[in-house]
Amino acid sequence: MPTPLRGICSMATRGLLDELAAAYTQRTDVPVSFVAVGGVEAARRVADGEQFDVVALASDAIDKLVAAGRLDAAGKVDIVRSEVGIAVPADAQPPGIATEDAVRHAVRAAARIAYSTGPSGVALIALFERWGIADDIRGRLVQAPPGVPVGSLVARGEAALGFQQMSELIGVEGIRLLGPLPPEIQIVTTFSAALGLGAAQPAEVRSLLDFMASDDSAEAKRRHGMAPAPQR
Fold first, then answer.
1. Is 190 helix (H, G, I), strand (E, B) or coil?
2. Which residues, including other chains, have CB under 8 Å from residue 207's CB and lie 6 or more apart?
3. 31-49: buried (b, 16+ CB within 10 Å) or exposed (e) per residue?
4. 43/49 Cα distance (integer angstroms)
5. 102: helix, coil or strand?
6. How far is the first Cα of the chain from the last one, in angstroms, to the nearest whole number?
7. How high is the mean pLDDT in each 10-residue block of the chain (232 residues)?
């Protein structure tokens, strides 16, 4: 039995990477598994020295771990581009979200607004600040704890409006996914992967990374609400 490869990723890519890991194992007989946690927690574990063969996180988080000497810069590949979507409780009257003005109106009208940690959450707060409504809605903002899906807060009625990566909202019971943010305010995160320094099988990890970035993985990426990332 080949030695298994162990990876860590954020929740946004959990479903996709589980599928790609299974597909790679079927092709090569090399077992691959990913631990999925909040992106901030994943970056902390790698920065603290926990050993993984492959790490898949937002591209800027990968770059920081490369700079810290935890990942191999030469092996970095971009995997997917992920957009932010909007959800409401399944039984709620859905607001319009087709334009920037419509989304701003929906945010101002919502009793509570849920959003995630990580780069998309930071960008969303920056958008609210640009709109000049951040102070007005601050008391109605609910940030999901790391690793807790925004969709679960919306489904439980703890938020009337939820923003998170489309991949994390697809298929969540109890919510209605309205769609992605309109193009003029869309928040796009590129998720990348890299070889962990000290990996026992660097050549096998590079083969896995090539597969994750290849055209053969494109359809799976679309099924999970993401788009293949252009290769550098």
1. strand
2. 28
3. ebebebbbbebbbebbeee
4. 10
5. helix
6. 34
7. 91 95 96 93 96 96 96 92 97 96 98 91 95 97 90 96 94 96 96 94 96 96 94 68
Do 14 and 193 meet the contact criterion of CB atoms below 8 Å apart? no
- Residue 70 is encoded by which pair of tokens? 């935890």
What is the pLDDT at residue 232? Answer: 64
57 forms bridges with which residues in the sheet?
A: 192
Pair 227, 80: CB distance under 8 Å: yes
Q: How far is CA 53 from CA 19, 76, 100, 102, in A?
A: 18, 13, 41, 44
Separation CA 175–CA 180 (nearest Å):
14
**Cα–chain-centroid distance for residue 152?**
16
For residue 175 the two structure tokens come to 């919510």
Neighbour count for residue 223 (Cβ, 10 Å): 13
Task: Evaluate if pTM is beyond 0.85.
Answer: yes
d(CA 107, CA 128): 9
CA distance 109 to 97: 13
Q: 69: helix, coil or strand?
A: coil
